[in-house]
Amino acid sequence: MTSVRRTPLLVPLALLVFVGSALTGCSATEAASSHPSPTKPGSSTAEASDSADICTWVSAAAAQAALRLQPALTQQAAGTFVDGEPECGFTTDDQSIIINVTVFDASTKPFDPAKPIMGDDAFHPISGVGDRAAIGDFELDAAVGSKVLVVENFTDDSAVAPAQLIALAKLFVPHIR
Question: Which of 24, 29, 138, 176 is most buried by a 10 A CB count?
Fold first, then answer.
């Protein structure tokens, strides 16, 4: 089945940081460090909000340890989705593997175990992730309290299995509760 998926976060985010740093006259490192993080790294009780930097919840190294990918995930970029929802992208150095994690408010993007929020995967319910969850070949959606966690794989060659999306989702769920 061919899946329709959106553009990964990391490419537009890299362009945004470059353009933003050019407009402000500061380096990308300065631009990134000038934005305070509203959550503490490693905090297990942080509430997902529209302004949360969810990349502080799970490092690229922790994501790689859970996913065990080859090549390894080495980069991470925080961003926001269309309506300001917090998003975190993970990638390999060569960007052959790209995985995005987004947290939506369930009132605007409700969880549906039969239909993915982002793509058109054939979905089936799974247990053990959040309150309720469903997964397809390229996307996992999990209802967690008043939020919906979406983990998307932008790799076309099945380098990331559904079980690996589950492993990554389980790292994010405790931070949403």
Answer: 138
C-alpha span between 174 and 58 (Å, rounded): 11
Q: Residue 82: left if φ>0, alpha if ψ -120 to 50, beta else—which one?
A: alpha
Structural domain containing residue 101: 10-176
Residue 169 maps to a domain: yes
Phi (first) and psi of residue 152, to 5 degrees: -115, 140
Is residue 5 a part of any domain in this protein? no
Q: How far apart are CA 88 and CA 23, in angstroms?
A: 24
pLDDT in tens, 80-103: 888 889 999 999 999 999 999 999
Of 109, 161, 157, which is closest to residue 139 (Cα–Cα)?
161
pLDDT at 155: 84
Q: Indicate the number of domains in the chain.
A: 1
Instruction: Give pLDDT tens digits for 128-146.
Output: 999 999 999 899 999 999 9
The 8 Å CB, 24+ separation contacts for 69-73 are 69/97, 69/159, 69/160, 69/164, 71/96, 71/97, 73/97, 73/99
